[in-house]
Amino acid sequence: MRLIALLLVGLLKFTLATNRDPFIWLSSLHNRGYASLQADNTGGECPEECDCPPTFPMAMYCDNRNMNKMPYIPSRMKYVYLQHNQITTVPNNAFGNATNIVWLMLHENLISSVGKQAFAKLANLNRLYLNNNNLTEVPSNLPRSLQDLRLNHNKINKLQPNAFEGMANLTVLLLHHNGLQDIGVGLKSLKSLTLLDVSRNQLKKVPDSLPEMLHQLYLDSNSIEAVPANYFSQFTNLQYVRFSHNELTNKGIPQNAFNNSGLVELDLSFNKLESIPVVSTSLQHLYLQANHIKEFTLGSFCSVVDVMNFSKLRVLRLEGNEISAGDMPSEAALCLRLASDIAV
Ligand SMILES: *[C@@H]1O[C@H](CO)[C@@H](O)[C@H](O)[C@H]1NC(C)=O
Ligand SMILES: *[C@@H]1O[C@H](CO)[C@@H](O)[C@H](O)[C@H]1NC(C)=O
Ligand SMILES: *[C@@H]1O[C@H](CO)[C@@H](O)[C@H](O)[C@H]1NC(C)=O
Ligand SMILES: *[C@@H]1O[C@H](CO)[C@@H](O)[C@H](O)[C@H]1NC(C)=O
Ligand SMILES: *[C@@H]1O[C@H](CO)[C@@H](O)[C@H](O)[C@H]1NC(C)=O
After folding, report:
1. Is the pTM of this model over 0.70?
2. In a shared domain, residues 24 and 120
3. Residue 313: how many other CB atoms lie within 10 Å
4. How many domains does one find in the chain?
5. Is the CB of 168 under 6 A from ligand 3?
6. What residues line ligand 1, using a CB cutoff of 6 Å?
7. What percent of the chain has pLDDT over 70?
């Protein structure tokens, strides 16, 4: 039945394209017909240890198979799932002719070695998940087409200057849980970057230059002591800043460092602050628990002269500091009138 249907479709195509050489057409029909029939039954050629569902012939599922090396990847593949195995090496020829891969899931393996050209030909690659491996550096020659690059939970301790060069479409870059002491490279050219997670590294200072589009910046659990003046005013889209578990002191924070009208959420918990930094009236969530704050300064939230210009703060966490609820001035009710969750 299928063969007949196929022939009919083929004939229709042929009659619509009458200027084609019939001999070439017949042989191409034969080849394509055979390949299509196979695809109908099995999804096309597929490495034995993987599943290639016939209903989704461009996807190859090889996750959780106890594999310790890269399988052969048929050239038609676009979505390749190899996570949760024991792969240690991605050699230069790992992808052979499978240059159309769009998603490549390699997380939760033991990868420590990647050929310098391994990913170079994957010109359509959007998502590359290499998190939870044993990498000590960012693989070389990553495709510029990447949009989502996950390298968290590795042992990366240095970024090569050109590690992310030309990735104008990169929107997500996850580097948390690595051994970085310095970002070193300018990330400013990552024009589309909206989320940067560099938490749980060993950073001593904030990254130097970051793209303006940035929306979320996660710096938790590093050793950062200071924020340069006007650091946050360079980002017009920044809404979420997480700085918990660092070494921030008030000395390291210029007067208006966090008084940035775009911020929605600011996490400064588990630092060494002795007073509440000035924040914008538009901030909605402020986490300050487990610092050494000694005083409740209402002027950090609202201008005292203009109490009608109240704070938009909804959540304020202050527990684990050196103040108690009794230290809140009575005007706080006016200034923080939207706050539904204040914990002291
Ligand atoms: C890739 O394609 C070329 C040309 O079609 C072919 O000669 C070669 O054997 C293919 N390589 C692999 C690994 O399939
Ligand atoms: C991870 O890499 C280190 C070298 O960087 C090596 O000593 C270690 O055995 C690797 N671990 C695994 C589980 O492969
Ligand atoms: C970024 O995306 C646009 C639109 O999809 C595309 O035209 C362009 O080639 C991409 N840039 C890179 C470096 O891949
Ligand atoms: C916060 O910034 C605004 C303008 O961006 C400014 O008017 C205000 O005085 C600043 N707050 C404090 C307490 O400095
Ligand atoms: C409220 O005060 C801030 C500075 O504290 C200022 O930027 C803003 O324009 C004021 N808003 C109104 C409605 O007065």
Report:
1. yes
2. no
3. 24
4. 2
5. yes
6. 96-97
7. 86
